[in-house]
Write a structure and sequence with these properties.
Length: about 90
């Protein structure tokens, strides 16, 4: 599912938003090899950090509620969406 720019703004911080903008097709065409590698590295770090946070939150929720998805069934969804979006950004760079 493609995530709109408005949704990305609500999920990402300023540095991650810069990665989002750089991963768009017109911006990608203007990047040289060194710049592209730097952005891949930044995107991978951000994706790993978001994925690890989502995993830690899932484990805390499981410990606290006894269920992976919390009482409402949608606990930590924002963190999961952010990790998914950052993985998509990394995929565009690669």
């Amino acid at each position: 599912m493609p995530i709109t720019r408005a949704r990305a703004v609500s999920l990402l911080n300023q540095r991650e938003m810069a990665l989002y903008d750089d991963s768009r097709i017109n911006a990608l065409r203007q990047l040289d090899e060194k710049s592209l590698q730097a952005r891949i590295s930044r995107a991978r770090t951000a994706r790993d950090r978001a994925r690890d946070l989502a995993q830690r939150q899932k484990l805390q929720t499981r410990e606290r509620t006894g269920a992976k998805r919390g009482f409402s069934g949608a606990a930590n969804q924002r963190s999961l969406d952010k990790a998914e979006l950052l993985a998509d950004i990394l995929g565009r760079f690669e």
